[in-house]
Structure formats: C-alpha cells, structure tokens
Write a structure and sequence with these properties.
Chain G: InterPro entries: CPA3_Na-H_Antiporter_A (IPR050616), MrpA_C/MbhD (IPR025383), MrpA_C/MbhE (IPR046806), ND/Mrp_TM (IPR001750), Proton_antipo_N (IPR001516). Chain G: It holds the Pfam family MbhE. Chain G: Keywords: Antiport, Cell membrane, Ion transport, Membrane, Transmembrane, Transmembrane helix, Transport. The complex is a heteroheptamer. Chain F is mainly α. Helices cover about 70% and strands about 5% of the residues of chain F. Helix content of chain G is about 70%, strand content about 0%. Chain G has a two-stranded antiparallel ribbon. In chain G, α4 packs antiparallel against α5 and α4 packs across α21. The mean pLDDT of chain G is about 85. Classes of the chains: A mainly alpha, B mainly alpha, C mainly alpha, D mainly alpha, E mainly alpha, F mainly alpha, G mainly alpha. Chains in contact: A-D, A-E, A-F, B-C, B-E, B-F, B-G, C-F, C-G, D-F, E-F, E-G, F-G. Chains F and G meet through α2, α4, β2 and α5 of F and α28, α31 and α32 of G. One sodium ion sits at the interface of chains G and F.
Chain lengths: ~130, ~120, ~500, ~160, ~90, ~140, ~775
Amino acid sequence: MNILIGIIITLGTLFVLLAAVGLIRMPDTYLRISVNTKAATLGIGLLLVGVALYFYDLSTTSRAFIIILFLFLTAPVGAHLIGRASYFIGNKLWDQSKMDDLQGKYQRNSHILKSEIDDTPEDNVDHEKME
Amino acid sequence: MEILLAILIGLLYAAGIYMILRRSLVKLIIGIILLGNGANLLIFLLGRITKGLPPIIPENSEVFTEAYADPVPQALILTAIVISFGLQSFAIILVKRAHKVVRTDDLDEMNATDEDS
Amino acid sequence: MMQHLIIYPLLFQLFLSIVLMFFWNKINAQKIISIGGSIIAVALSAYVFYFVWENGTQKVNAGDWDAPYGIVFVADTLAVTLVLLTALSGLAVSVFSAGSVIKDRLRFGYYPIFHFLLLGLTGAFLTGDLFNLYVWFEIIIISSFVLITIGGEKAQLEGAVKYFTLNILASIIFLTAIAVLYGLTGSLNMADLAGKVAAVENRGLVEVAAILFLVGFGTKASIFPLYFWLPASYHTPPAAVSAIFGGLLTKVGVYALIRVFTLIFVGDVFLGEILMVLAILTIFSGGVGALVQNNVRKVFSYLIICHIGYMIAGLGMFTEVAITGVIFYLIHDIMVKTNLFMVSGIIFKIKSSNSMRALGGFYANYPKLSLLIFIPLFSLVGIPPLSGFWPKISLIGEGFKTESYWTVAAIVFASFITLVIIAKLWAEVFWKDAKEIPEKPKFEYFSDLNKTKKTQFIVPIVFLSLISLYIGFGAEHIQILSARIANELMNSQQYIDTVLNNS
Amino acid sequence: MKNRFVSNILLTFVWVVLTGDFHVSNYLFGFILSYIILMVITRGSKKAKYFTIVPRLIFIILFFFWELIKANLEVAWEVMTPKLNMTPGIVKVPLTVQSDAGITLLANMITLTPGTLSLDVSNDKKVLYVHAMYIKDKDKFIAGIKNGFEKRILEILK
Amino acid sequence: MTLVEYCRIIILPVLAFSVILILVRFFKGPSIADRIVALDLLITTGIGIIGIYTITSGSSTLLDTGMILALIAFLSTVALSYYLERRSKKK
Amino acid sequence: MKTIILRTASNYLLPVLLMFSIFILLRGHYLPGGGFVGGLVAAIAFVLHSFANGLKNAKALLKFHPGFLMPAGLALSFFSGLSPMLFAGDPFMTGLWYHGHVPVLGSIGSALFFDIGVYLVVVGVTLTIIFTISEAP
Amino acid sequence: MLLAILLGFLFALLLVFAGKFFKGKFAVLSSLIPLGLFVYFLQFIPEVMAGEIMKESYNWAPSFGVNLGFTLDGLSLLFCLMITGIGFLVFVYTSAYLHHHKYLDRFYGYLSVFMAAMLGLVLSDNVISLFTFWELTSISSFFLIGFNNTQEASRKSALTALGITGLGGMFLLAGVIVLGNIAGTYSIAEMLNMAPELIKGHQYYSVAVILLFGAAFTKSAQFPFHFWLPGAMKAPTPVSTYLHSATMVKAGIYLVMRFTPVLGGEEIWNTTLIIVGGFTMLYSAIHSLFRTDLKGVLAYSTISALGILMFLIGMGTTESFTAAAVFIVVHALYKATLFLTTGIIDHQTGSRDVTKLSGLRKVLMPVGIAAIIAAISSAGIPPTIGFLGKELTYEATMHAPIIATVLLVGIIITKILLLWAGFVAGIKPFQGKLPDNLKDTKMPGPLMWVPPIVLAVLSLVFGILPFIIEGSLVKPVVAALGGESGEIHLALWHGFNTVFILSLVTITVGTILYFVIKPSAKLETSIGKLEFISPKSLMERFNIGFTYVSSFWTRVFQNGYLRNYVFIIIFFLVGMVGYTMVGSTKFNIDPAILSNISFYELVVSIIMCIAILFTVFTSSRLSAVVAMGVVGLTICLVFVFYSAPDLAMTQFSIDTLTVILFVLVLYRLPRYLKIQDHKMRIRDGILSLLFGGMIAVLALEVLSEPVNTEIGDFYAKNSYIMAHGKNVVNVILVDFRGADTMIEISVLTIAAIGVFGLLKLRLKRTDRVQ
Ligand code: NA
Ligand code: NA
C-alpha cells in the first residue's frame, strides 16, 4: 500500500515540478498559464489522493476530495480570467505563435468580445506578436 | 528554525518601518501591514513554536495525550490578525479618501495641519 | 447579580452602542438614547464607585474562569474613579454633541461610535488582563479614527493620516511588548505578571519590555518625543470629538503607564529617571508649542502635552505622595480638558473661527459666558483654589523631597507658561475688540440656533465647570480619594491578592 | 421546481460528505441547510433533466481524466526536452453549445486539459477563443474539441 | 525508508525546489500577469506541501487549511484580473 | 467583468461556498474553523458573486443591507454572553450548556451562539466594506 | 474674619447678576463695604495694643495641611486698616471718577475681589491660603490693569504685570511648599513656635529664602522686576492709587515682614534685602527725574519707596523695623494723596504731562492743598509724618550693622530725589501761571476731592500727634517682626542731632534740585537712549528670543512630516532598547533550545525573505501587493508547519481579502512617487535594520529564557471537560477569552462603519468645518 502511495505522490510531485519548470521555460504568458493550471491541478490532485490513501479514513478522504473538487472548479476560471486580462494589458504572443484569432475582436473600452471583426477596428485591442 | 524566524521577524519589522518612512501613502499602508505580520509572528515565536499536535483534542479523547502546540499564542494572534484586518481596511480607505481630497500621494505635502493657522 | 456589578458600566455602554446601531437613521432617537443612556451610565458608574469605595477592590472573572486563566475585570479605586470620570465626560459630550454635531455626521454612526469609544475607555480602565487591555486600546483607537475622520474634510484627513499611523505604530509596539512579556512569563494577567516578572532573572529583558511599554503607552499618552500625532490632529474634528479626545484619550495612556509601572515594573530606578527626563521635555515641548500657536484648539492641544508632563513627572518620582498628585491632576485634567475643547467649540460656533488673531470681543458681548469660560481656563492654569492648583502641592513638594530639582523647575515652568498662555488667550479672544470676520454664508451661527440647541451647548460646559469648581473647593475629598488610590497603587499586593484569590 | 429539488439533494450530499457524518440527522440537517441556501440565492429557474445526466456525467468525467493525463504527459515532454517544439496560437472555435452552463463546462474542461486554455467566449456566445500549444492543423484542432468535449457535453445537456 | 521519511527527505524538498522555480518566475515577470500566475501556482503548490506535511506530521487536521486555500486562492486571481481589466479600460 | 464563464461558475460556486462557510462555522468548536473563518468565507462568496455579476446583483441577492448583520451579530454575541448573567447568575461570558448530545452540532451552548454572532458580524463587516468600496466613485 | 474676607467676594458675585443697580447713582453706596470693614478692624486696636493675637481657623483641605487659618496681629492690622481705609476712599473716589462708565459695575467687582484677596493675604496664617490670596490679587490686578481692555497698550501692560507677578507667584508657590516641607507645617504660627535653627539650619533654608524673595521682589517691584509697575499706570487712577501704591505692591513687603521672625536674621536674608532694596531705591529715584508723566514720576518714586522698605527690613534692627512701620504709613498716605490729586488733574484737564501743567491752584484749590501737604510729607518736612519717617530712617541707617556710611549716603541721595519727585507731583502743577487752555478747568464734585484731603489731613495729624499710631500700629508691627517694641517712642522733635542736620541737608539740596532740574521731554528722551539695557527691554528681548526658541523647537519637532515623526519615535525606541540591551542583558542565546532547520523550512524562509524585499523595492504598486500575497502565503505555511491550522486559515483568508481591498481601490490610488534621495534611503535603511535587528536579537534572548505554559495547559486540560470544545483555540476565542472576541468584533464593526462613513458621507460645502 505504502509503495502505491509513494508512487502516486512521486508522480504528483513530478507534475508539480514540471509545472514549475514550465513556468520558467515557457516563452509567453498564455503558455505559462496553460502549463500552470493543469500540471499543478493534476499534480496536487495526485498528491492529495496519496494523502487520502495514507490516512485512509473518511474525514481525510472527504477533505482531500473537496480540495480536488475546489481546485478543478476554480483553476480553469482563474486561468480564463488572467489569460483574458493578459490580452487586455497587451501581453503579446510568443513570436513563433501560429495565429491570433483574437486580434481585433475585443473592443478596447467596453471589452465586448465579438465573434467576427466588424468595421470599427480602431477601437479594438490589437497587438502584434512579440519581437 | 527559531533563528530563521527571528531573522524574518526582524526583517518584517525593518521592512515595515522602512516602508512607513517613505513618502508614499500606499507604501505607508504596506508598511503597516508588514509590521502587523511581524508582530503576529513574534507572538507566535515567543509563545514557543512546536511541531506537536495542533491544539485540537483528538477524537475519542477528552484531553491531550501527546505533545501539543500552545493554543494561547494562537488565540492571541487570531484576535490580533482580525483586528489588524479591521484597521487595515480602514487605513486603505482612509488613504484613498485622503488622496482624493488632498490630491497628493506625497506625505510630505500633507503638513497643513501642523502649520500655524 | 450584585457580584457582577463592576462590569455593568462596561456592559451598558456596549448595550447602548448596539441599540444605537439599530436606530441607524433615526437621529433624534439616537440623541435621546445617548443622552438618557449617558445619564444612566453616570448613575451606574457612581454606584459602582460608591460600592468599591465602601467595599474595597472588586473583581469579576469573565466566563467564570479564575485568574490568571480567564480574563478578569478588576475594579480598584483608580479604575472606578476613571470609569466615573469617563461617564461624566461622556454625558457632557453626549449633550454637547446633540447640539453641535451636524446632522450629516450623526447620520453616519456618530453616536454608536461615540459610545464604542466610551466602552473602550471603560474597558481599558477595568481590565486586569494585558492582552485584553490591548484589545480595548484597539477599540479606542479605531473608534477615534472613525470619529476623527467623520465628515472627511481635508484637514481632518491630513490629521487623521498622522494620527492613524503613529497610533498604529504604538499599538504594534504594545503588541511587541506583550509578546516579549508572554515569552518571558507565559502569563497575561497583570496581577499574575507582577509576581512572575519579579521572578525573571534576566533583568535586562524585563527592562526592555518596560521600555517597549513605555514607548507604546507613551505614544498614546503623548509624551516627548512621541506626541507628534496630537497637535497634528486634535484640532481637526468637530469640537465634541476633540473634547472627548482631549479629556480622555491621552489619559488612558497615562493610566496604562501608571498601572504597568506600579504593578508590573515596580521601582526601577533607571526607568524612573527616564520618565523624569521625558516629563521635563514633554512639559517644555508642550509649553513652548502652545506659546506660539494661534488656533485656540491647537493651544489647548499643546497644553494637553504640557500637562501630561506633570503626571509623568509624578510617576517618575514614584513616591506615594507624588502618585497622589498624579491622580489628583488626572482627575482635574480630564474634566478641564474636556470642557475646554467644548469651549473652543462654542467659540467657533459664535464667530466661525478659532484663530486668536481673528477672534475678540467676547467679554463685551458675552460677559456671562466669558465668566463661565473663565472657570475652566483658570482651573487649567491652576490659580488657587481652582482645581489645577492642588496637585502641584504634592508634586512640587515631592520634587524637593526626591531632590528632582529639574522636575520642580519644569513644573513651575509649566504652571507659569500656562498662565501666560491663558492670559494671552484671554486678552486676545475675550478682551480685544471684536473684529469683523466676513460672515460665512449659510454657516449656522450660535445666534441662529434655537433654544434647545443653545442649551445643549451651554449646559455641558456649566456641568463640567461645576465639577471643576467642586474639585477645587472640595479638594479635600479629591485628595482623600487620590491618596487612597495612590496607597492602593503603591501597595499593589492587595490588588494582586484580590485578583488571584490569595488570602 | 425539479431543478431546485435536485440541487437540493446534491447539496445535501455535498454537506454529508463534507462533514463526514452519515447519520440520518445529518442528512436532514444538510437538506434543510441547502434548502435555505437555495432559497436565498435562487432567482428565476433553470431547467435541466438531472436524472438522465448521471451516467453521462460519469462518462464525461472519465473521458476528461483520460484527456487530462494524456495531455499532461505531452506538456511534460515539452517542458523536459530542451528544445521548444510548440506551434502555439489563439484559435477561434465556433460553439454549438448554447447554454451558459454548457459553455462554461466546455471552456473549463478545455482549460484543465494541458496545452489548451480557454481565453474567452464572445459576447454573442458564438465562438470560444482557445489558446493552444500545438496547432498543427487548425481545422483538425477545432474538430477535436467539437467531437470530444462538446459532443459529450451536448449529450448531457440534451 | 518509511513513507514518512521519503516524504520528508525527497518529496518536500522537491516541492520546495519547485517553489523556488516559481519564485524565479515571480521575479522575472515580466508582466504583472506573470506574477499573478506565479502567485497562483505558488498557492497551489502550497496546498500540495500542506498535504505532504500532514503525512510527515501525522496530523490530518492541517488539511483543513488546504481546503481554505483551494477555495479562496482563486479569488485573488479574480480580483487581480479584475483590476488589470479596469486599468486597461481606463487607458 | 462580464464573462459568461465566471458568471456561470460563480452561480454554482456561491451555494457551495456558503455551505462551506457554515460547515466551517459549526465545526469550529471541534476542529479548525469557527465564526471568523466561516464569516470570511461567506463574505468571499458574495464578493465573488459581485465580481462576476456586478454589485447590484450581489446586493439584490442579499435582500437587505449587509450592514444590518453587524448590530444583529453583535446583539446575538452580546446576549449569549449576557445570558449566564440573566439566567444563571454567573459572570459575563460564562458558558451555558445544554446537557446532552445534539446531532450534527454536538453540544449546544451559549458559545455556539456567540460564534454565530461572530460569523454574522464578520460577514456584515466584510461585505459592508467591500460593497461600499465598490460603489465609491 | 472669614466673613470680612468673603464679603468682598460675595459683593463681586452679586455684581455679576445685579450689576446694573450699582452702575448709577448708587455706586457710591458700595463704599459702605470697605468702610464697614475699616470700622470692624478698628475695633481690634485695643486687643492688638494689648499684645493679643486673634486667631480663627476653618477646615479646608486638611489632607494637604491646608486650612483657612487667620491671624490678626499688629502687622496684619496695619495692612487691614490700610486696605479698608484707603479702599473706602478709593471706592468713594471711583464713584465720581468713573461716573456713568459703561462697566462701572465690573470695576467695583474687581476692586472688591482685590480688596477681599488682599485682606485674605494679610490675615492668612496658612502659607498655602496666603498663596491662594496672593494669586487672587494678581488676577484681580490683571483685570484692573486691563480694565480698558479694548486698548492694546492696556492689554499689554496687564499681561506684563500678570507675567511678572505670576512669575513671582510661582516662586512663592515653590517657596511655601519648600518651607512647608522644611517646617512640616504650613502654619506660620507653628513655624514661629519651632526652634529657629530647625528652619534656619535646614539644607533648604536658602532655597526657601530665595524663592520667597523672588515672590516678594516681583510683587513689590524691586529691581530688576520693577518695570511692570510703571506699565501698570495704564490702569485708571483709582487702581494706581489703591493697588500700585498703597496695597498690592506692599504685599511683597508684607511677605518679607511676615517671614522676618521665621527666616530673618541670617546673612543671606539681610544682605540680599539691603542690596536689592538699596539698589532699587536709588535706581528708581534717579529714574523718576526723567519722567514728564505725573503718574510715571509717581510710579518710580513708589518703586523707590518700596526699595527703602526692603532696605529697612533688611537691616533687621528694632530701629529699622520702626522706621519701616512708620514709613509704610507715611508712604501710603502721601502717595495715595498724590495719585488721587493727579487723577483729578487728569480727569479735569485731560493731561498728566507735568511740563504742560501749572497754576492749577487757581482752579483746583482744595486739590492743591491736599497735594502740597502730601508733597511736604514726602519731602520729610515737619510737621508732617513724613518728617518722622525720614528721621527714623536716617537713624536706623546710621546704626546699620554693616557699611553704615555707604548706606547712609545712598538713602540720603534717594530721599533728596524723592523730595524732588514729591514736589514735582504735588507742587509743580499748582504753582506758576495758569495756561489759557486750562482756564476753564472745573472743580470736581466733593466725592473726588474729599478723599485726598482726608489723606493729606491724616499726614498732618499723625505728624503732629504721632502717639496715635505709636501704640496702635507701630509698636505692634515691630513686635510682630520680632523687634523690641518697648524701646519705641515716636516724637516729631528728636532734638538737634546728626539726623536733624542730615534732614536739613536733604531738604535744602532737594529744594535746590527742584528749582534746578525741571522735568522736560528732553530729559525723558535722554533716558530713553539707555532703554536698551534696562531690565524691561532685556525682558522683552528675552521674550522675543524665547518665542523664537519656542517656534524653532516646535518647528523642529512638529514639522509636518510624518516620516520624521516616525523616524524620531523609532530612533528613540532603538536608542533606549539598544542602550538597555547592550548595557544589561547577556547575549546567551542557547543553541540547544533551537530546533534544527529543515530544507523546506529554509526554502519557505528564503521565499518570505525575498518576497519582503521585493515588496519593499519593487517600483510597481501592484507587484508589491502581489508580493505581499506571497508573504502572507509563507506565513500561512509557517503556521501550518508549527501546528496552527486555525491561524493558517485565518491568515490566508484575510490576506486574500486584503488583496481584494487593495485591488478595489488601487487604481484610484496614485502611482508610487519617484523620489530619489539616496542619503535619506540609506539613513532610513540603517535605522530600519537596527530596529529589525533589535527585535530579532530580543526574540532570541527571550527564547533562551525558561518557558511557562501553565495557562495553555490549563486550557488544554479543561477545554473539553469544562468548556465542551475540542478545538482549544476556538474555545479560547469563544469561551476562555471570549471577552476579547466580543471587543474584537466590535472593532470590526466600527471599522466597517468608519469605511462606510468615509466613503459615503459627503459634506455639503456649507457644512464643512462646522
Ligand atoms: Na476557530
Ligand atoms: Na465558561
């Protein structure tokens, strides 16, 4: 049993470590958000599963479960918000990015997001890729 | 760990005072918050830190059977934290209002009430 | 129920605050509740005072947990005296507020906060627990923050930023001191600490803790060089607020110093000397500060500092007679300073200014009011037999006995400079011809007020002036009281025994 | 009405798990508590057929975890290898799901799977903008989402 | 090596090391959004550390703290994003 | 912030957070938690809601001004502190306990009501502060 | 006696409410009070002559040793009679002098208070009550001098007078307290009963003497405190007459006389009095030459006379005491007369400039008679009592215990100059030709001219019949001073002796001088050139200097810069604590008590450390806020590591809320200032680090002390069993220390109300600063 827990925990830790490395290595904010949200959630999820197994009682298990639930509920929303804010404040995409469909679709002041580019481009958030 | 904590507490106090000594309203608040944190940690440290059980009596037991952390400093800090929260919120708003009315962030320019009038 | 009597004043103020909050938008109801409540509070405090006077020091264990484990409220003579004085000032200012504080301010919780402040003061005087004292201090400073900023005028906010910062700083230092003391002794109960601190072998650490307390409380008491927040802010809020501040806020710092230095850190020579030096500098700074001010309220603010010096000096001498003088002065000063800031309020209401240069003509136009104001003014100076005179006998006499000549010189200097300042103020504000101050449009002048409001301005001043006169002419009673308090303070074993159930 | 009842039961369950106390009284308490909370917060009513959902829900969760692990490994590889072989970008994904809940669920699932991040939904709810690490083929990528998560979500919400 | 020892000697240091890496990003920024992301990950990792710490200390009560962290950490992100948005609107 | 994702998520998170806050409140006497943290969590729930759906919406949800919770909570705490004086002749803040085990809550005593008062005050205070700030120009 | 004193106070109180009644015709009725009192005191003469001492005592504040104890002996009686007698005449005179004045009632009020205070002063046996009355005379004199308070000059001289006499009051306060501490009693009678060496041999004897002299010299206008008195001439003439020649200024003389038997006889006592008195008499007698204002001349001659009195008391012989006693009477009579006549001249002609007044005998004959008699008395020409006084003075000086010849020369010169002054004030305005502009001068009503006549007549009567005052006043006074009253025999004619020759010389030289030196504006200007070294101008310069120092001191400390305030406070704290810690604590940090450091703890510490530094040094506000979030998180982890889950939870929730708060207001807040002041940063940095270092060392030192967990253990033991809770921290919060929590939630509530008010309350412009 302990070995199983050990493996699960090790995996979890590795994911967390990966997220940390990713956070450093990724070249733009969006990629960092990407890496962060999941590796950590999965990593922490595994760690907590390990903890639940270790104590193996109902109260710990339920708490671990709830933490995982909360993380899964909140992390993507947070990522969405910070990613979107990032775009507003002008964080540019990595220069090797393939495309930016968002370009020109946010209205600068109302922050209304359109599905198509319309004829008021001067009002829209529009930035080039990173130099 | 005590040595590290003592240094950190010292650093919090130092940073707090240093920030208060700057001339900016925002830094003033940050300084106060840092000082508050320092004081809380100081109570924690001087109440003697231990890695025993949290001060929660285990299930199926009426008293502690193992070593436990002193609950008193914890309760004191809890009170202090909450009080600081009240004061800090007030401070933040005070600064916002002061900035709006006095129209400066420079504390050096807020000296009219000390002048003879 | 009788055995819990001593915390009734405290519970009652809390009750009042809560009730007042439920009447949030009903200003007139608030006025009635506050004034009526304050009268009851005076009655309660007076009864508690009487009870303690007759039966000696009382205590209540909150939560029924014995000291030093629970929080204990202790009513010795000093505590009940200050509680009574708080109630008296509270009543006066409550009435004065009804007349003088404008509607908009009342609509934003003036009265509940005012009673919270009184609650804080009452609690601070009654508690026997150091951390609990900290919490009471916090309620005092947060309510004073709110009161000092209420209305949010430019000057108020500027003053408030300084008031706020320095008071918070003091609180944090106080908290640091508690941490050190708890770390050394593992106790928070002041009576318990008395014994435990005495048993600590590392006296240097005890001294450091004492200094931390000195700085923390000293800032609240506004002693040199910690007083800066006071002249920067006390003249900015409405007069009613200044009145309660001027009367009681610094005094709670003095109270805490007295309590701590007579109970926990007893008889340290080094500290006594420091206190004495600080007292001299406090007196000097306050005196010369008041001398060069033009704003009436700023003059009073600096005089607060100056006179705090008396009390600190007496504490520094640390003899029973000196402490008697300190207590007498404390009693006198609370009444007079509260009164004087109300006076500044009425002056402002009449002429829409507090500048001595701009004011004048009061004696010609308001002779009876002037004579009324004469009482607190010259009580402050300590012209015998008015109230401020008596404690000087004890303080100067002990100054010679303890050979602290510089302190005596400082006390004499303070008396003299107060005389000069008040005489100057009298000449400027009351004697000098009235100057034409351009009328402020829509300013509600005193003469525009209806009779009720005028009464609400005058009655509290008369009330406190009568008390001041009583303190002066009935000095014997006050002296007996002060002497008993000093005796209790200097022989703290009785306090300790009461709290810790030793027999 | 039904919706509320279902939420109520679900919340009761959450409560019981939360407290770890499985006595009847605790169910009752949880029920009352959640009833009160729902009463406080519910305005208007949203319709959903909860009882058909459950099996599909389980399926989608399993699918989700599978995606999660798969993509995680992919990202792990990317991070560990010295060279960055990504072809990132922001892709506009047209939406078939219309309900707020559906869109949110989809967006969150996309975000939780590594390599992709739902940046925003257009105000007319027609498109979802997704940032992805590997866009070899835009259409293929879009199709992957539409046939994967979205299809299953649509099934649940049907 | 018992599991507890394993956690203390290997897992916790590795997690701590991860935290240092995250902190590096926190410093490098370059944009404030990167710092917020770093803070977010820091807190998430903190939950992990707390989890492992419950194993090494043997007291599962500490996991309660993790619950709070998991639930409200996200609110900082919400608030900070909210701020960034409002600020960018103002420009 | 008008985002569908946040709005929808917060609609689901709100009840969960509120329930969680009460959970934290009630277990406080036995396990970590209590009125403070519980109150903070509840307040945070509403704050989140106000971020997602706008302040007006969040206020409408509450149906009364959050400031009202402050005197209410204070009164509750005050009277639970006072109750031993009124009913048992014990000092202020003495615990009055109903002897016997009550399901879910464990022992019921004045301390519980005191803690509920704390909870209400904390919610009231936090929301008053944050709502006021959000409204301020 | 108490009633006699209270009468004046009661009358003043009555005037506050019924002043109108006394403003009109009935004003003169108020003089019945001093008259009644005068008669009352007259009836004590037989007892006093018999050597009896009347005593009365009322309890007041026995805890202080203060009672209202009154003693009536010869000295008191002399003063009482002067106070009430001259008081009566002044009251009468005033009713005409200030006829129909708007504030006549107030004037009478002040006069009554003053008279009462003066009576209290001379009757008090208890030194504290003596001090009380002393201060009351200062205050009432403040009001009297400032009676015309809308004039700036009046206010200024009132303030100066109060300043100087107030200063004296402080000396007296300190003096009587020292004396009380030396003697162990505040009662003068009891001090007299003590063995003299107990007091005179005490280490604080000279302190007490110097303090008492400080009081006496200021009140009695001795050099260098004399200058307030000429200034006080701004007051209406009745005040000058009453306070500044006859009574109040003699309070200092009274004080010295009163304490002569207690403290006198020692060298410091006698020498100081002789030197100060002697210098004063000469200095101001010379000064009187240079005045053209009649009141100015009188003021300086008054100071001179007060100097003579001090000088006489200082010699400490029976002869000198006798001379002093007589001279008090002499001076009171002639000086009051001259003031009153001067007042009449002023009142009727509108001028007091002696260079412009002459020939007034033609229009103001009765006044002239009074003035001339007074002038003769002041010159010491027989048969006035002034002659007697001068003879006694010379006699006493000739037998002075030290440097008699020098002193004699001094006193003769003084007397010559005083003769000049008396003639200038009493004769000059009436002799010569009446200028045209004064031809219409009218005689005042009898209420004004009778009082000076009465006084002048008394000067004559006492001169011719000295036995009237010999037994009733002089002997008892000398007895009260401790002299041998048996030796005294007053007679106008003492025989043709040295003293008589000296008298003749004095009169002759003085008269010649009177005809040689005429008061002139030129002379007045010439002395004006020396003004800058006069005590008055020195005092004024001191005032200016002191005000400057005050402003400077206040500006240095209260300079408006918050950061300076914080700096000073922390500097003070660091200094004090540092001094103590370096001085008296041992740096015995015990490594054994410290737990070892795990890697993850180290990492958390490093993170906290870096985050703190980042918070401090980042240039972006938002980054600082985020970094504070990191600090909060690490603190939270520390709490977790050391078994404080409740704390960790609360800390984290509150940190999150703080971030939210910040964020909500941050974009309304200013950006950081860009201020580059490296010196300041370094200074602040050093202080901050010292402060932080001090706290850290302090923490470690405390940790090395033994630990006491008694209270925590009690809580842990009873938490479940007695308080029915298992989370001890929570049980502490809601039960063991529930009172804290009750207050704490109140604090939160107040903060919320404050925030609400700060943000929602907007005062209308008109309501500002109300
Ligand atoms: Na708790
Ligand atoms: Na209890």
